[in-house]
Amino acid sequence: MSFWSNSVSEPRRNFKFLLRVQNIPVWVVKNVNLPKITLQEGKHQFLNHTFYFPGTVEYNTVSFTIVDAIEENISSKVLEAFAGGGYKIPDAPDPALTSLVTKGDSITTLGAVSIEHLGSGDSGYEGDRQISFELVNAWVKDVEFATALSYDNNDPSEIKVELRYDFFKFEATGGRSLPGFGA
User: Which terminus of the chain, N or C, has fewer Cβ atoms within 10 Å?
Assistant: First the structure.
């Protein structure tokens, strides 16, 4: 039986997701891109032949857009996650000398980051259709505030945040993980 003719089968929907980042409410998140894995290649040339071999694994950055909610003070929370890694404005000799951003502090300040792709049903958790990506050692790489303010635009102000991470752990409903991705 094909997928489309099966009444109980349903695809995952792009609008059913939750991004969980410490100190940022899930309701201000507008979008997020999912992780991407690239297997770099090595090559060996022998006479007029080229042979390719799998090389190192590289993970892309994950970026998300959030609405800058006034009551939640989102701008401050995002900048705190960035500055918590050790960044200080170099407006005097002492802060300039001690402004050392470290991976450990950046990871600790940001906290755990996970993306949950929800299933079907009213709650989103029906059946075994939920998956999640836990970003391991994530830190804030880029913060971009609204690119322009304008009197003729009444859209909510947004902040784009880009995260770098070492790898992700993948989990399906019921705690199932795949070998190599958290198993």
Answer: N
Q: Which residues contact 108 (CB under 8 A, 6 or more apart)?
A: 84
> At which residue do the structure tokens 């050790």 appear?
86
Contact predicate 129/21, CB 8 Å? no
Strands 139-145 and 176-177: unpaired
Taken in order of first residue, the domains within the chain and their CATH numbers are 10-175 (2.30.110)
* DSSP letters spanning 3-19: GGG-TT-----TT-EEE
In the chain, how long is the greatest CA-to-CA distance?
A: 71
CA distance 81 to 108: 9
